[in-house]
Amino acid sequence: MLFSAHDKIIFAGDSVTDAGRARPSGEGLFGAYGNGYVSYIAGFFDAMYPQLDLRVVNRGVSGDRISELAARWQEDVLDDSPDWVAVMIGVNDVWRRFDSPHFHEQHLTVEYYRETLERLIETTLPRVKGMVLMTPYYLEPNRSDPMRAEIDRRCEVVAELAAKYALPLADVQAGFDRFMEHMYSSVITWDRVHPNHIGCALICKVFFEAVGFDWNGGIV
Question: Is 0.85 topped by the overall pTM?
Answer without folding.
Answer: yes
